[in-house]
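User: Okay, second chain of the day. Same drill as before: sequence in, structure tokens out.
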Amino acid sequence: MYLSELSRDRNNNLDIMRFLAAICVIISHAIPLSKGEEYADFISVYTSGSLSIGGIAVGIFFVAGGFLISKSMERVKTAKAFFSARCIRIFPSLIFVTVLSVFVLGPVLTQLPLVSYFMDKNTYLYLINMILIPVHALPGVFEHNIYPEVVNGPLWTLSVEFVCYILCFLAFKIGFFNKKNYLCTVPLAIMMCVLVLYLNNSFLTSVIRPVLLFYIGFGMYVLRDHIKLSAKYNFLAIVIFVLLLVMKCDFLAMILIFPYIVFYLGYGCKYKFSNFSRYGEFSYGMYLWGWPIGQTVCMLAGGRMNWILNAVIVSVIAILFGIISYYAVDRNVNKIYKKIMTVKQS
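Assistant: Same drill. Structure tokens below.
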């Protein structure tokens, strides 16, 4: 069957895939947080830092996001409706985590006297994480951990994600939701891929790759009538993906092959866990809380610890905090937003 047929309703595996991806990000981060930033998971070691288990997991968020957000853009059509929905999705939990980090986590864990902590301008500078400007340190917090000072490393990806939202909106307005117009942008995407491969810079790769995956997810939405999902093609895709990883062509594996695997597992599988998120979507909160919880667990263990134990403990606590974030923040904000929209429409 074609992607267009399989993606008409909510009968898919994307929710459970995002949940598992959030767990994989926690596992990937547990190694450097527990042993030091020079350590990493086996994929990162094999690819000299250009790809990791966490990078693959983040890829799931971006390639699926490119498809779903394009679908949302075409449905709502206006800038106000589109960006209101996106802001409601990304900012409430981000503000919740940032404020608690500054006014609860920081005061409890800082090595400084509380007066010094609250008098330090860097304490309040951390709050600009709420507007997608990454600031990593809080005064006196995690200074003696094996991975020192960084309070919430993954927040930088949210800035990249919001840029992708803007690009999606511009693509809709310019007319790139049309198949022929979209195909005209492919040479530019190829040029970006060539540039990344030529420069061979792991930081640049980690920033550009999510944008390209979002772009491909967007393209799969535009071309959904022509994308056939089958177990045979997926098996072949997995074999090629593994071979490319073995050959250390991880960037090509992620860009050329990985999106098909994600969409087959998300939409093409015979068995679907479509009710997985019937009580709420917790993966975003887990993603936001995973790193600071990991740092806190390491601090309480003396600054370093066994990474497997860290991953297990953090995963359990992050799920709990993801549930709290959803019920305390996301669900209530969504209810208020829906009421406002209902009143405006009436």
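The CA atoms of residues 60 and 262 lie 7 Å apart.

User: Thanks, on to the next one.
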